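Subject: Predicted fold for Nucleolar RNAse III, putative, 233 residues

User T.R. writes:
Posting the sequence so we have a shared reference for the thread.
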Amino acid sequence: MDDKLELAVFTHPALSNNNNTTYDRLEILGDAYIELIATKLVWEKFPGLPAGRISQIREILVKNETLAGFAERFGLDSRVSVPPNYNAPSKRWTKTKGDVFEAYIAAVILSDPVCGYEAVEHWLAGLWVPILKNLGHQKGELRSKEALAKKIMGKNVKLEYIEERPSIQQKGGTQTFFVALYLTGWGWDKRFLGSGQGLSKAAAGDEAAKKALLNTPLILEIVSAKESWEPSS
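User M.O. replies:
I've generated the structure tokens; pasting them so everyone works from the same file.
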């Protein structure tokens, strides 16, 4: 890597008035490269996935928590110069680590105009593919929510997907989310149907819906109640 770029990667903008000697400019370029590479990877891994889902999955790959985890894994966070007491655990420090990782990506590409981009693309794919596998989206969209709604929804009936406890930060930058599912309608007020966990709120919610669908006695009870209410509605 170019020496000047390497020094800039690991220098916080607050330490210099010259933004060419800090990661200030590098991180925005690195952010653009990362977004592009992540979009291409998800697009190729999940043929036929609609744009909205591509965007959601990409967000998991490029969010600060994920990139900060990569920075920690490769020791980039321990090399950055920051103002005193700046690296105490906080959202600010998480963002800084993400920024440093983005700046590092830009510096690698700029340092090698011929092969840098290809090397970065290969490296990032290796980091992201395990996350994509854990998401469990290889076969397409999450569908349990739709299936459950078709079975039990109706006029003035509501399904609520509520985060039941704080997410847990995992190694490698991923998070595990926990979502509970409640039904209001057909004579019930916020009846608990199931809970799920996943690497996104959408995945956790879909897991909760899947568990509800697999609870045959529960579904039969709700469908029976639905049928008894609908004729009079």
